[in-house]
Amino acid sequence: MNQSTLLLRRCMLLGIVFTSGAPLYASSTESHRDTLKLKEVIVTAPLKSNPDLIPLNVTQISEASIEKSGESSLMPILVTKVPGLFVTERGFAGYGVSGGSAGSVNIRGVGQSNKVLFMIDGQPQWAGVFGHSMADTYVANGIEKVEVVKGPSSLLYGSNAMGGSVNLVTQTQKSDGLTGRARAMFGSFSTQKFALSSGYKKGRFSATLSGQLDRSNGNRAGSAFWLANEFAQLKYAISNNWSIAGMLDMTQSHANNPGTLQDPLENMWTDIFRGTGGLYVKNNYGKFDGGIQGYINWGRHNVDDGNTPGSLPKDYLFHSTDYNMGLTAYESFYLWQANILSAGIDFQHWGGHVWNTNKEDESIRTSESKHHVNEIAGYIMMQQGFFNDILNINGGVRLQHGSSYGNVWVPQAGFIVRPGHNARIKASFSKGFRAPNIRELYLYPPANPELKPEYMLNYEISYRQYFLNSRFMIGAAIFYIDGKDMIQTIRIDGRPKNVNTGKFHNKGFEIESSYSILENLSAYAAWSYLHTDSDNLYSPKNKLNISMTYSPGSFDFTLEEISIWSLNNGNPTGKTENYSLLNLRAAYTLKSKVPVTLSVKLDNITNKHYQIIYGCPMPGTTILGGVEFKF
Questions:
Q1: Among 73, 76, 91, 88, which residue's Cα sits nearest to residue 258?
Q2: β 116-120/164-170 pair status
Q3: Are the beta carbons of 385 and 394 closer than 8 angstroms?
Q4: pTM value?
């Protein structure tokens, strides 16, 4: 380890105490005061922590930012709004689940093989067989906000949160009556996007419904894509102390994949169905609060692996079904002033079934396999505030047992210092891990049932300061990541085998700033830098985001620039990809009883040619125009 790395690591360890965690991270006095001020019960999704105050670096994306983006998928919003986060794409329409690494999410260079956990209202979302999240299913419609934790979230959520977590918080109807919105957009490559959402509340009962349909021919021949999503949620406040809610989210999609320019394919497609269901009960008694949540995430995938041009199509289809279900219970206790003690138990059962069928006779099955894994965990966390919350010390530990890998201890430590009313310093040490998935354990020739989890240790310090009555903000973070026992495929006695052998060290920094120049004019900029000693695909060394929003009267304009330098996109020559994109969104709202918004969205105005995944050219200039009604 060189001198600079040692210095960075020591700086980030300085002052980090042995206690950390992620409970509500607010003083008990503040929590009680907020509870007593509530005049009516608003049923919200269960959250194990307050992301605003945890010692790790957190980015929250508001509903207004999601709406202003004009995007139907959350992935491009994450790329432009979250420093240090990057998502791979292979074209204009859809991300897909086969034929490359499309839809892979990386945070600070960590993310391949599902090291970033996606959740909907705290419910983990990933395919039980292959272990990866499903980028196509995370739509913007019906989402109230997104909470991104940059750094291990394994203390709260266990496996697959090794590099961070992304929690999609669904909309809650807050005012009595019926509200809704409908949107339609049309544009390049025969693209059509439709979305409808509605909410209803009466007294203690509320309901939300939403639906979305996207379809496009894609920017390359043979890359047509469509997706449909449906969401429903019911909530009821039984009393001022108890509430209950249930939700159901379903997504269907079909994507064609033409392969790469170097290795084109014909007849390659994927059919996907994903579903998520959940039920939770919450309690709030002032001196303690918590909840219990049950959930299931399941899927069905059908894939034709395609054929090279001029060759005969494959005579089989690949099929898989999977499930990921669990139960989590947690409670937080406010024992004395500025203290919170939280404890919880998690149980998870996940697995799946894979097989091939003959295209001419579906009753003929080959390569059939079925497996599952059970996990159970308990965690405890404590936070103590000092000096009127100028200093908060946090601590916690998790013990998780998996039927395929045994026991894993997960500690986390950190503190938050508020040297002034508008300043905040965070420092943390945290451990993350990812359990091997069923494919790595049991499927195909490299499989190894003796695999152990991957680990990483994360050290970071962040600083944020507000000036000019909070109109101007600057923030910075530095981090060091030490990863070990990465699962890699090597040859042993001439045969491929998955083993825990890989290591990596990532370090870097993130700088961001925002400024409300005028009441209707604001600007934002963020630069993230990553240095890694591993051959890290799809994690740019430098990423720069700049945006400016101007809203005179009924108009709204957003100009956005994103620049990527030194992206390893898999080019066999080792050459990295560099590109800059300029995007514009303009909207005009007709203010009436039923507000109508007309919008146009121009992406890649300069018609830049680039490839995020080698051999998969991204589109040039694209345009989408649409109309939205609110009632």
A1: 91
A2: parallel
A3: no
A4: 0.90
